[in-house]
């Protein structure tokens, strides 16, 4: 696994000049490149990955804010373009601290960067940051579990179309966390999340189908239907394998449980 190594040399050129960023078009191209690079990391790209991580660290350093503002003005960037850039940078580094990818896992730093990304409202990254903050608080990553905060952030992101937040909001109703327990409402929300998923490669594909499988198997919010449960568990298994290939560190437990439930369905159906 590639881990970030802090540079010991003192670079003489300012941030954007180091990466030949001369206007907003080249900035947008560079950001698209590094996000794709870091999301599809390969050992042979280690030097490029180090450069990309350097850039994100410096772009999210409060000491560079004045420099960035001057550059944004010079490039003629709109307020929305600035918010998109800043929220994206903070979301990315927050995700790396949360997962432990590239940096040592640090939930407090992840929370800090997610909150900053969230503050740059009106961007896709701010919506994802809200969903990620829901995870931070629902799992108590930075202290005791805070379901009220989790409910707030999941509701916010779900209302703006985030599928991960939507199925996690379903979980809140399934378990009665910060709201009245309601298995029927949870099931309806899971179905809504399923309708929003456009591809089996989407991150939430496995999680949504695992929950729908449980609903049909145990009769949560709907009638027991082992055949429907089996279909959803098989989809969850397929999506989980894709996540595993993409180095998702949290998916192993889901895959183990889905495998058990597939066997249970086959036993019920007498296959």
What secondary-structure arrangement, pairings included, does this model have?
Layout: H1 15-18, H2 24-39, H3 46-59, H4 65-75, H5 79-99, H6 107-119, H7 124-138, H8 147-159, H9 163-175, H10 183-196, H11 205-218, H12 226-245, H13 252-268
Helix pairs in contact: 2-3, 3-5, 5-6, 5-7, 6-7, 7-8, 8-9, 9-10, 10-11, 11-12, 11-13, 12-13
Question: What would you say this structure looks like, in words?
Answer:
Helix content is 68%, strand content 0%. By secondary structure, the protein is mainly alpha-helical. Helix 11 (205-218) runs parallel beside helix 13 (252-268). It has a domain at 197-271: Up-down Bundle (Methane Monooxygenase Hydroxylase, Chain G, domain 1), CATH 1.20.58. The model has no long low-confidence stretch (mean pLDDT 92).
């Amino acid at each position: 696994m590639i881990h970030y190594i802090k540079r010991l040399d003192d670079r003489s050129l300012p941030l954007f000049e180091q990466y030949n960023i001369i206007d907003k078009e080249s900035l947008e191209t560079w950001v698209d490149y590094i996000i794709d690079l870091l999301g599809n990391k390969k050992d042979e790209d280690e030097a490029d990955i180090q450069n990309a991580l350097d850039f994100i660290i410096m772009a999210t350093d409060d000491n560079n804010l004045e420099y960035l503002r001057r550059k944004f003005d010079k490039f003629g960037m709109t307020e929305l373009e600035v918010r998109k850039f800043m929220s994206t940078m903070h979301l990315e580094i927050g995700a790396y601290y949360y997962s432990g990818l590239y940096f040592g896992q640090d939930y407090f730093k992840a929370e800090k960067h997610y909150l900053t990304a969230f503050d740059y409202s009106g961007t896709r990254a701010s919506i994802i940051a809200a969903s990620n903050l829901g995870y931070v608080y629902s799992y108590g990553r930075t202290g005791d579990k805070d379901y009220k905060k989790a409910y707030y952030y999941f509701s916010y992101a779900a209302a703006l179309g985030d599928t991960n937040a939507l199925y996690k909001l379903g979980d809140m109703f399934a378990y009665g966390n910060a709201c009245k327990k309601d298995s029927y409402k949870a099931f309806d929300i899971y179905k809504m999340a399923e309708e929003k998923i456009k591809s089996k490669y989407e991150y939430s594909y496995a999680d949504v189908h695992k929950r729908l499988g449980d609903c049909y198997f145990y009769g949560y919010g709907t009638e027991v239907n082992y055949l429907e449960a089996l279909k959803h568990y098989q989809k969850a298994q397929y999506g989980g394998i894709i996540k595993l290939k993409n180095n998702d560190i949290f998916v192993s437990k889901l895959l183990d449980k889905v495998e058990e439930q597939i066997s249970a369905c086959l036993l019920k159906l007498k296959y």
